[in-house]
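Readers of this paper often ask what the protein records in our data store actually look like. Such a record has a labelled line for the sequence and another for the backbone structure tokens. The tokens are whole numbers drawn from a learned vocabulary of local backbone shapes. We quote a single record here, exactly as it is kept in our systems:
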Amino acid sequence: MRKQALCYWFYKCLLLLGMSASLSLSAQTAYFISPGGNDENPGTIDQPFKTLVHAQELARRISGLITIYLREGTYYLDNVLVFTPEDGNEGKQLTISGYPGEHVVISGGVNLNLQWAPFQKGIMQAHVHDLSSMDLMTVNGVIRPMARYPNYDSTALRFNGTAADATSPARIKTWNNPAGGFLHAMHRGDWGDFHYRFTGKTADDGLEMEGGWQNNRRNGLSPDNRMVENIFEELDAPGEWYFNSQQSILYYYPLASEDIHTANFEVAKLKHLIEVRGTTANPVKNIILKDLEFTLATRTFMEHYEPLLRSDWTIYRGGAIFLEGTENCTIQNAYLHNLGGNAVFFSKYNRNSGISGCHLTQIGASAVCFVGDTGALRSPSFEYNEFVPLQKINRAPGPRTSNFPSNCFVLDNLIHNIGLFEKQITGVEISMSQGITVSHNSIYEVPRAGINVSEGTWGGHIIEYNDVFDTVKETGDHGSFNSWGRDRFWHPKRATMDTLVTEEPALILADAMATTVIRNNRFRCDRGWDIDLDDGSSNYRIYDNLCLNGGIKLREGFYRVVENNILVNSTFHPHVWFAKSSDVFTRNIVMSQYAPIQLQGWGEMVDYNLFTDQEALETARQHGTDQHSIETKIDFVNPQKGDFSVEAQDLEVFEMGFQNFPMDKFGVVSPRLKNMAKTPRMPVPIQNQHASGTNTMVWQGWRIKNLETLGERSATGMDSERGIYVVTQVKYDSRMRDFIQANDVILQFAGVPVNNLDELLLAAKQTDLTQPVQMVIFRNQKENVVVIPGNTME
């Protein structure tokens, strides 16, 4: 495996130097483009062309190494720019590059030239010419919300504000004509979201609407977490806007700090900016997009969505940059932002293509997606409850065709603040693909998983050296890394699946053919698991990972080897295992009791682990595991600075076979990106609690303790050792997950100061929990008032 990684890095170094593996050409041609150029010019640096399309037409007539340099400025696209095998092939490499040291923007938007006049109540109005609709608008480069209810709140948990009465008859009654408006609602189980477009309203103030196809688990909408937008009557807060398409009038409520007459208004008009389109038989080869900024693409949540193999997902097969049928095509050192849907989408056949050194932020849906063709599958099922009858299952292993991404990469990218409009999204999505390498990326501020693998087809992925945190921020029952494995062997009825894998174990790896490796990553999930291998996920090797909060979960599946990981303040979560799963959990540092659910067996081996809590070890041995494991106090080198290496003098740890691994290799490596990237909060290790007298307890689904050490003060920013320190979440379906976070300090409960566990329990006992309860919590260096709705606490 190490040899494979070295080969990968060598190939990528060649790629980033612009040396395509398929080319050995000496002929080089350069064209230059400038916003002030002329297509009648020769396209030299002194006499540049004006349009990319013109340069592209000329480049198609020649072979060799061709570079089209874009000089500084913004290039507004009238139509999507499409590259085909004419542009890049066996005899041609085409590079589209910003000129060195110059700022080049490729935009799918329109710059509005507006003459504003007052309307009413602080709202301004302006006529807009030549636009029949508006979807995403920026003011001075910042996305502004459509007129909405509830109003935009940057601190709100979901959709920047939700309300149960968003679609109440009383509110609908106040709308003259909601047609063209939208309903955004969370899934009833918090597994993503749904979106609907209003087509009108009924006589009894109900809504007529279409949509709801954006989630593959059709369990219904949350009754509480709803938001409506693009409703004229809801235009009542600074920053909001509404476009009357029939009258071509834009209404805008300016911020107090804005000079509306000098502000720059832009709207997105294209769904895709760049498409690289080939086929399996005739792929596009050797296209490089380099040193460019891509911005302004429309939202796509109402486009056609397709389900993904019994995962929780449906997906729009598209993105601002869309690649299908490619070989050796790359996006390098780009800045992608203010995009309404997916940023980059690798669809169907792609080989040795990928994205590196890029910054992706303010993205409406997912950042980078790899999704193969469903025609490559054998015996597929697409919805959770669907299945192919046993007698009709195709037993042949692997794919039917080669029409899927393979040997592609996501290398050294900064991905954050994504999922602005859609919540069933991720930083990197992998579905119906094989051998995808996701390496040295920093991914954070994500409503669901940072990295998601939708099913086992066809494995062989390498997930390494990533820094993934602040995930699952708007959803639940998920992890920083998440996977599903509802492959051919999987069945919605457990008894049927037990019979199938017993009688035909070869089916287990018929789809998950190659081992997926998760190694040398740093994960932190405060609302779920750090690593979550959900239903059926099989054939994984997980080692040398630093898990900072949520631990590792393995649900029903087979052939998972988990070794040499550090689970800070957390533990191992084996859920619903098969009688003979062949799973291995060994040489891991575990800091609290295992959390098993409905196990039929404990796999091949759960032993030789290192516990920091004697009671946790004794409980494990009562289950029949960990007969050779030990309990010991572990000295980490510098946990406050993120170095959880074990001190050299802890000989017991190393005698058990544990090995330190690098603590300074997580996340992006490019200096430019490294200077911008955030890092996760570092927890204070809580260990040897029973041996040392440190008291912790589980309350409302959270492990809590008295704040009593300098390390805890440093981690939280508190001024003294007082209050209740929230260590980690242990019950992921607790409704209190929406109100408390790891690293919080509880200072007051129902108006009563609480400085220790006893005072908190007494205050809770004396409070009517059926009514709203106010808590004061120290978070982000300040006191925050949090109101807990009635009947939320157990």
User: Anything to note?
Assistant: The chain is about 10% helix and 35% strand.
